[in-house]
Structure formats: structure tokens, C-alpha cells
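User: C-alpha cells in, sequence out, please.
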């Protein structure tokens, strides 16, 4: 309480006082909209521009781990409206977060995508990891990203959902779609049905929210 009085929260996008993310900046996110791609249907909640981009960067790279609850809330609202989301007999819709490189996760204080998934209150399966040797994907084109990931997305056996489950793959930003495609392929090969891919933002040219 004392810390919150001395250092009040500020919107991670615009700096407005008293909130982690103000209503105006959060309005950049909306219902899931389709993103062009190959493989399972892909959706995003915002384009990777403006306030949405600033919130993702703050959460991912600028130490605003308090935004896990904000992004978790976006997931909670989005899943019932996501085409392809499937609930199992126990009422669970399984989220599988896309993995981060170990060095990046350590620098960020853990996987931000996993943190948001867990904050959503939905069923989460931490089922994927990256093998050593995966390069940072920033600046890589689609072909290089695919080569960078080929054979390096691995199953984490202790984090798998029940056998044969339908899952939604979760990521922060869709750029070329290489990460999502490789993750979906690995999950499919293990007998899981990736019924949709959901990203908080898309760096592709898309038309959100109608």
C-alpha cells in the first residue's frame, strides 16, 4: 500500500496516472479478428501499432510485469469470442503459450506470455520450450525465422494437457507466422488439435474490429 502511494501506477502506454493501462489505450484491443496465415486459423486482438504496441513492449521488454493481469483479462474476454476455441468436458479451454528463448525469459523475469495466460484464470499447458541455439528473431525474414526454429521447438512433457486435447496456441505478436506454424506442427505431431492461434497483436496488415 505504501509503495503504491509513493510510486503510483502509470499507464504503460500513455503515462496516465493511477492505472496500469488506461481505458483509452486498452480500447486499442478488441474482439479477435482473423490474420492471414497458413495452418490453423490465426487471430489477433489488435494491430501492432500505437497504444497496443506500447503495452506489449512494456510488458515484454520494459519490466512492467504488473501488466500480466491486464493481458490476462484480455484473454478472459477474448476466448469466448474466439472462433475455433474448444472447451473440454471439464469446461476447460486449454491455452498453450508460445515459448521464449531461455536467455530472454531470464532477462524478462520469466515468460511474459505464460504469465498472461496464467493470469487469465483459464486452463494453461506450459507444453513447449525452445532448444538451445535459437537466435533472436528480430530482423529475420520469414524464411530465416523458419530455418531458425526448424526442429528446435520441443515438447515439455511435464506441461502437456490431457492426451488428444484441443488447444489454442497463444503468442504476443504475429510477424511472419513462423513461430506459430512450428509450434502448431509440434503440437499436432504429439496428437493435440490446435484449433486456433491467438496473438495479442499482429504486425501483419489486417483489418481489426470490423
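Assistant: Sequence out:
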Amino acid at each position: 500500500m505504501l509503495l503504491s502511494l509513493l510510486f503510483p501506477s502509470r499507464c504503460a502506454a500513455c503515462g496516465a496516472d493511477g492505472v496500469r493501462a488506461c481505458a483509452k489505450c486498452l480500447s486499442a484491443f478488441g474482439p479477435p479478428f482473423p490474420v492471414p496465415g497458413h495452418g490453423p486459423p490465426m487471430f489477433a486482438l489488435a494491430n501492432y501499432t500505437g497504444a497496443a504496441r506500447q503495452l506489449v513492449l512494456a510488458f515484454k521488454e520494459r519490466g512492467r510485469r504488473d501488466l500480466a493481469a491486464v493481458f490476462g483479462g484480455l484473454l478472459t474476454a477474448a476466448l469466448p469470442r474466439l472462433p475455433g476455441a474448444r472447451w473440454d468436458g471439464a469446461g476447460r479451454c486449454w491455452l498453450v503459450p508460445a515459448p521464449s528463448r531461455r536467455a530472454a525469459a531470464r532477462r524478462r523475469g520469466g515468460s511474459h506470455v505464460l504469465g498472461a495466460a496464467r493470469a487469465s484464470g483459464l486452463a494453461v499447458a506450459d507444453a513447449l520450450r525452445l532448444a538451445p541455439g535459437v537466435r533472436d528473431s528480430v530482423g529475420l525474414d520469414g524464411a530465416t525465422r523458419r530455418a531458425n526454429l526448424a526442429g528446435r521447438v520441443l515438447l515439455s512433457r511435464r506441461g502437456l494437457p490431457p492426451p488428444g486435447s484441443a488447444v489454442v496456441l497463444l503468442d504476443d505478436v504475429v510477424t511472419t507466422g513462423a513461430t506459430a506454424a512450428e509450434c502448431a506442427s509440434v503440437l499436432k505431431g504429439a496428437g493435440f488439435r490446435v484449433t486456433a492461434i491467438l496473438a495479442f497483436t499482429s504486425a501483419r496488415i489486417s483489418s481489426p474490429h470490423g
